[in-house]
Design brief:
Rossmann fold; 524 residues; five-stranded parallel beta sheet; seven-stranded parallel beta sheet; 33% helix; 4 domains; alpha/beta; 60s Ribosomal Protein L30, Chain: A; 17 helices
Length: 524
Amino acid sequence: MKILVADPVAEEGIEALRAQAEVDVKIKLKPDELKSIIADYDALIVRSETRATADVIDAGKKLQVIARAGVGLDNIDVEAATRRGIVVVNAPTGNTIAAAEHTIAMMLALARHVPQANAKLKSGAWQRSEYMGVQLKGKTVGIIGLGNVGSEVARRVQAFEMRAIGYDPLVSPDYAQNLGVTLVPLDKLLKESDFITLHLPLIPETKGMLGVKELSNMKPGVRIINCARGGLIDEEALYQAVESGKVAGAACDVFTTEPTTDNILLKSDKIIVTPHLGASTIEAQASVALEVAEQVLAVLKGQPARYAVNAPRIPAELLVTLAPFMQVGSILGSLARQLMEGQLNRIQIEYCGELATYDTGAVKASIIGGLLQGLSEERINLINATVIAARRGIKISEKKEATCDNYASLVSLEVVTNVGTTMVAGTVLRGETHIVRINSFWPDIIPTGGYFLFCDHRDRPGLIGAVGDITGRADINISSMQLARLQSRGKALMILALDESLPEEQRQEILALPDVYAAKLVKL
């Protein structure tokens, strides 16, 4: 086995690899240099500097595994690796403690003005009264995201006797309770928290999630910490909120563009900044290196990797049957996540018909992946889906039925929360995904990669026209519409396929119409 280490990795990891394989450490390779030598190696290990592009991956004829000694995968073309049957692994837990401790350090520094007071005293001024701080004891800390790092932060704030509240729709109340965290809606967290700390990945759904509106809804004097990802907070809005006094202070370890020395957040004396130091501890780098080394060696021995981030190979003879239902599963998970309300307790998956005779582990993994999309740093696949769901306290049950009414095969997903149950089902018809069940209704939707408005209402004359009038005045085109109902003038479900996203103002207009019970915008 021959392994190429293309970026600096802690010596502990190198030694572990060299005990079982031939290892070459060649850092600062130019893209053409990497491409010219990669064909000789079975494994490639990188951090953030080296890019494993599609060209590099295609040149790596012997590559079996690409490892990222860290969490982010922006510099690895995962899709290209997956097409080649190359396993991609990362180390999502190796720097968890370091990131959590840095968050606590920033929180304390923010509460007591430590950097500002240090700079002032070293400049020759003794000014105690200028730096009156606050205690953590008795304060409310709002934790947005209870993944690996957020959970460790939650455990640590208990030592300061803080009240911890959290927002993460896809962890169970029991899991949060064990952390000492009370789950609340995001708007409640914003209004009640004295300190707010973010622990989410940066994806389209979370980009700019704390903007002008959210900052204006926060408690006056709140303090905000972001050691997760740059871009989660609107930086201009945060700067203005701090300077106006609405936000007492902020501490940021990450920025929209990195490296940076001219970010607007650096211009405020009330904002503490550090250059992405969350994972920068000796222990974290050693842990990450060992975590990656263990997985690389496992893959090269034909064993499963603990944190594989792409789907494993499926035998060619099964791929034709399973691949379309993996797509169905991913869409069902995403749809259920967007339709459900409350905190997730458990899910049940049912496979009916011909599909029930196969190993459906890949379909299950796709469902969980769609459900957790954007709320987990890790990509969900056959290897880690059950582990990640269990880590979040999600109970999963599966059922198989050899017979199936109306369809050759059907996948059904039932999501149970503390508020109620959401049921969705889908199948494959003529090579396309079809959503054929939403709760008690049986529509037939073909997900087109666009927006859909799901409107629960009472079937009555004029309602469809009233909804169309609202979308029309907003210049939003309806490409198709379906109406599913249980009986005439009874409960019904209207589904509109929209060419553009429906603004919140128009959604509220629709909700205000008589006999409309719910109106949810979904992207599929």
